[in-house]
Amino acid sequence: AYRRIPLLSAGDSQRAASTWAYSITKPADSWTDPDFDDKSWKRGEAGFGEPSTPAIRVRTDWNTPNIWLRSEFEAPAIEDDDLFTLHLFHDEDVEIFINGKPLMSARGFVIQYRDILLDNAQKSLIHKGRNTIAVHCHQTGGGQGVDVGLLLSRGKDE
Questions:
Q1: Which residue, of 5, 122, 137, 149, has the fewest CB within 10 Å?
Q2: DSSP-derived secondary structure letter, 109
Q3: How crowded is residue 138: how many other Cβ atoms within 10 Å of its Cβ?
C-alpha cells in the first residue's frame, strides 16, 4: 500500500486551494527559474479560468489569452519507489516547469482532470526541500481554465 501525500492540491473542493503568483502579461524569459522575483505578480487561489467552464472549480477569474503561474511546494527526500502524479486540468495549451526545467506540455484541452504519472526523468526534477513549479496556459477561444496539483505516493508502509 502507498501513503498519499498531497504536495500541491488541485481540483478538490474539499481541500484548501493552493495559492499561486500569476501574471497575464508576458514575463521575462527567466520566469520559470526558482530565483525569479514574482513579488509584483498578483496572488490567487487555483483554479484559474472562466467560472462557466465545465469540470473545473474556478477560484480566480482568468479571461485573457495567456496566464503565467508560479508556486512552491516542499518535498521530502525522494525514495526510489516514490510515485509522483500530476493532477491537471487545462483549456487550452499548457506548459509546466519544475525548478526551471520543462516537466511536460500538452496542446488542446481536456474535459476533466487528468492524472499523469511522472516518469523517472520527470521525477528527477523534484528535489528535497523547496521546489518551484511554473505553468503557462494559452487560450484561443471557448471555455478556459488551468489547475495543477502534485501528489506524492510514498512506498509501502511497514
A1: 5
A2: B
A3: 15
Grid cell digits, residue 109: 484541452
DSSP secondary structure, 35-64, as one string: T---TTSEEEESPEE-TTSTT---SEE--S
DSSP 16: P
Q: What are 158's three cell numbers? A: 511497514
pLDDT in tens, 86-140: 999 999 999 999 999 999 999 999 999 999 999 999 999 999 999 999 999 999 9
d(CA 5, CA 19): 18
The whole-model pTM stands at 0.94
Provide the grid cell at 41. 505578480
